[in-house]
Design goal:
This protein is α/β, with parallel strands linked by helices and 365 residues long. Helix content is 34%, strand content 22%. It binds adenosine-5'-diphosphate (ADP) and magnesium ion.
């Protein structure tokens, strides 16, 4: 069956009404991006941040409408708001369990997502840039290297980094109305960045984050996974809460750097997960020490060992130390995890040791 043309898609969308202006969705300027490939429509609806709740039914209607067109196998519609709008204010002490105005009532009462996966592990950190995605990626590849069937889900809706770290530029294919995770480095990977351009700066409101995350979990044909590693955005916001409430997590791995500031954030992360009943598998110290590439000398430029002491203080396991290495950043930038590109490097060995620890922690559950 021939695919609809972009004009035909727009004509179909013009039958939906924009609740704010009363005009049709297309002439109201709501269509931010619209793509059709291999029978999958991917569309972003432009909304103001405060409209997210009101636009959720429109999002769903657009999805159903597009998915029902001849020549379309499935449709994914997301809501986006751009950064030129002021950042959404996060009230201090933003309480876990806080309602997000989602239409389905208490998210904790809904059936759990990813229920048929052996163990779902969240990789979290109190702040960004501590190496969460690096750890998630290399840990997932190391676990896959042990014969486990491993999925890697980029839940960093705000700043997806898996497309770059895994070297993926293609879009997921669709089969039987679901997106297929992209097979790479022995993993099954999925990221919002495979669907929308990762360089498009966007701001997401609570309900959008929940919607987008839910789609990445439910509308993806994950194939019999023993383990799923979820790379979370930094902090303790909506994505963390959605996951804690909607997924039966085996536990969270908290990544920190050795500095006191990062450790304070890590502590907040630990408390947040504990408060919502998620087990902490342990704390990892990244950029722990500097390994001189020329002579192998170990220099502890950030005063290494802080995370180990913090883990002891918090009563959680210490899962290991990852060295600071230029090649680690380079391999991430180049799209090949260091566990694959330099398996004998100190960093790859540290990730293998981390995989041992995580496997042990999972077995102990
Ligand atoms: N141990 C490390 N040594 C060198 N560079 C690292 C290390 N860990 C992370 N990086 C680099 O630091 C940057 C931030 O890491 P990333 O994994 O994206 O952090 P996060 O996901 O926590 O924001 C990336 O460029 C990454 O390659
Ligand atoms: Mg990241």
């Amino acid at each position: 069956m021939p695919q609809p043309t972009p004009e035909q898609l727009r004509a179909a969308l013009a039958t939906l009404t924009d609740p704010a202006s009363g005009r049709d969705l297309v002439s109201a300027g709501r269509i931010e991006s619209l793509q059709l490939k291999d029978g999958l429509v991917q569309m972003a609806l432009r909304v103001r941040r405060e409209e997210a709740g009101a636009m959720e039914p429109v999002r769903r209607a657009a999805e159903a409408l597009l998915a029902g067109l001849d020549g379309v196998r499935n449709a994914t519609v997301i809501l986006t708001a751009h950064r030129d709008a002021p950042a959404p204010a996060q009230p201090p002490g933003h309480a876990p369990g806080h309602a997000h105005g989602h239409a389905h009532g208490d998210p904790r009462q809904q059936p759990k997502l990813l229920a048929n996966i052996g163990a779902v592990i969240a990789i979290a950190s109190g702040k960004g840039g501590v190496g969460k995605s690096t750890v998630a990626t290399n840990l997932a590849v190391a676990l896959a290297g042990r014969g486990l069937s491993v999925g890697l889900l980029d839940a960093d809706i705000y700043g997806p980094s898996l497309p770059q770290m895994l070297g993926i530029t293609r879009r997921p294919e669709v089969r039987d109305e679901k997106m297929l995770p992209i097979p790479v480095w022995g993993l099954q990977a999925m990221s919002i960045g495979f669907i929308i351009d990762p360089d498009t700066a966007m701001i997401w409101r609570g309900p959008m984050v929940m919607g987008a995350l839910q789609q990445l979990m439910e509308q993806v044909a994950w194939d019999k996974l023993d383990v799923m590693v979820i790379d979370l955005p930094p902090g303790t916001g909506d994505a963390q809460l959605t996951l804690a409430q909607r997924v039966d997590l085996a536990g969270a791995v908290i990544v920190s750097t050795p500095q006191d500031v990062a450790l304070a954030d890590a502590r907040r992360g630990v408390r947040m997960f504990e408060k919502v009943g998620v087990k902490i598998l342990g704390l990892v110290e990244n950029m722990s020490y500097f390994c001189c590439p020329a002579c192998g000398h170990r220099a502890e430029i950030f005063g290494h060992g802080g995370a180990r002491a913090e883990a002891a203080r918090l009563g959680v396991r210490f899962l290991g130390e990852i060295p600071l290495l230029a090649t680690l950043r380079e391999s991430g930038d180049a799209g090949t995890p260091i566990v694959v590109s330099a398996p004998e490097s100190p960093a790859a060995k540290a990730f293998q040791a981390l995989a041992d620890e995580v496997q042990t922690a999972l077995a102990r559950r």
